[in-house]
Amino acid sequence: MPAMTTRPQQGRRRAHALSKAQIVRAAIEILDRDGEHALTFRALSARLATGSGAIFWHVADKEDLLAAATEEIIARLVAEPGNDMEPKRAIRAVALAVFDAIDAHSWLGGQLFRNPAQPAALRISEMIGRSVQALGVPERALFNCWSALINYMLGVAAQNAANARQAHAEADRSAFLANVANRWAHLDPTEFAFVRQVADELRDHDDREQFLAGIDLILAGIGTLTRRADPSP
Amino acid sequence: MPAMTTRPQQGRRRAHALSKAQIVRAAIEILDRDGEHALTFRALSARLATGSGAIFWHVADKEDLLAAATEEIIARLVAEPGNDMEPKRAIRAVALAVFDAIDAHSWLGGQLFRNPAQPAALRISEMIGRSVQALGVPERALFNCWSALINYMLGVAAQNAANARQAHAEADRSAFLANVANRWAHLDPTEFAFVRQVADELRDHDDREQFLAGIDLILAGIGTLTRRADPSP
DNA sequence: TAAAGCAATGGAACGTTGTTCCATTCAAAT
DNA sequence: ATTTGAATGGAACAACGTTCCATTGCTTTA
């Protein structure tokens, strides 16, 4: 019996079958607890007590995994209320829900906007679109108003996610902001007059309010397209 | 003479000294030609006919390298005109300049917005801020108006970059858009009524116009904050 | 001019990652 | 009882960012 290279017998496990949903759930837990960079197939294998091969049987690649995780979170979010609301209120509600979701899962921002055409994300676009339509925006301007809102939402969202990632490296959020604010406050007074001026406000602003203010700004802009009746041209 | 493990003599090269600027220039060329994923220290070493060690002598790490590349592009952009312009025109000009830069260097979007507080990027924020101020926005609203514009700019920018990355995988841009539009057009008619409706417009819209329309929308929104004189409340 | 010091170089080596490969197992179908 | 094939777990691979280090040649010093 010459030395056939035979693998040592492997410990089997089939106690609870492995499923994509289970994998995605574990991935989300790792992402939420330890951050985006901590999600590796090895960490995931360890947590699920299996090998990477088994995971790849259920998942195409890492992008697929992250997409599925995003899908999962957004699906929970979309499954909520918000049928018959006044359009503006509806838009604010959807926007805030997205904002809060990204705030709670800092990895979501980068992901959601790396691929905003994901099925579940499309449902958000749909809700925004209908509300904009309900505002009475003229046909021509519809597409642009809709996309401006979506782009702004995703922009701030991902932006916040990026900040959260950096703030995680330092002590905490407020320390991080104070740090940035200080750096800004010491810039060249003539070249950076404005940035220096808003440095203070940066230090203790509320991201959520700031976000909503931007939404309202765009809504106000949309308002100028629709209210052609009241004032004179 | 026992076997000292001595390295085989290395070929030297000092024909043209290596500098950070030179490295950054080469990095930009790789990024522009072959995309973000193609910029590796090995590719960079090959192009500069050196070793990775030599590169790391001039550059802290990859993040530093990408930041420097971003800085380089933005610096060129900022070094231009735009002193005394009407505020709205100035804002549009800056925004379009940023948009075009990101359009020309598809990697720039993701980078610029992963770290929007980079020195050169701050100069853009400063220009926007001054213009917003010049519009006569009340003190309280200044910070929010400014950040809404910046966030929207970066949002669309990075969004476009993401699309460019995906479009690069497929044939070209228009084929990519047509593909997405087709997928949207075949969604469930009741659940995705709106998205289906705008699918056509997506197919042959102009990114640049769309971007500018969003800017104008925000500017219109800002206008409602400042024009308290003309119409009645 | 000779020696010493040191910024700079180039490439081997390291640790980690995403992914592939494959011998193996178990439950269902035959 | 046998065959089948979906599913498993872990070894192996390629590529990456980064570190390490023997070596070089310019510059400074004696």
Largest sheet of chain A: none
Q: Helicity of chain A, in percent?
A: over 70%
Architecture of the domain at 82-226 in chain A, CATH level 2? Orthogonal Bundle
Low-confidence spans of chain A:
1-13, 229-233
Mean pLDDT of chain A: 87
General form of chain A = flat
Residues in β-strands, percent of chain A: under 5%
- What's the gyration radius of chain A in Å? 23 Å
Overall CATH class of the domain at 82-226 in chain A: Mainly Alpha
The tally of beta strands of chain A, per DSSP, is 0
Q: Helical region count of chain A?
A: 11
Cα(first) to Cα(last) distance of chain A is: 97 Å
**CATH evolutionary superfamily of the domain at 82-226 in chain A:** Tetracycline Repressor, domain 2
Question: Which short descriptors sum up this protein?
Answer:
0% strand, disordered N terminus, homodimer, Tetracycline Repressor, domain 2, disordered C terminus, DNA-binding, 233 residues, mainly alpha, 11 helices
Question: Would you write up a description of this structure?
Answer:
2 copies of one chain form a homodimer. By secondary structure, the first copy, chain A, is mainly alpha-helical. Chain A has a domain at 82-226: Tetracycline Repressor, domain 2, CATH 1.10.357.10. Helix content of chain A is 71%, strand content 0%. Chain A is built from 11 helices and no strands. Chain A has helices at residues 20-34, 41-48, 52-58, 62-78, 87-104, 106-114, 119-134, 139-169, 173-185, 193-203, 207-226. Chain A is flat, with a radius of gyration of 23 Å. Mean pLDDT of chain A is 87; it is low at 1-13 and 229-233. Chains A and B meet through helix 7, helix 8, helix 9, helix 10 and helix 11 of A and helix 7, helix 8, helix 10 and helix 11 of B. The first copy, chain A, binds a DNA duplex (30 and 30 nucleotides) through helix 2 and helix 3.
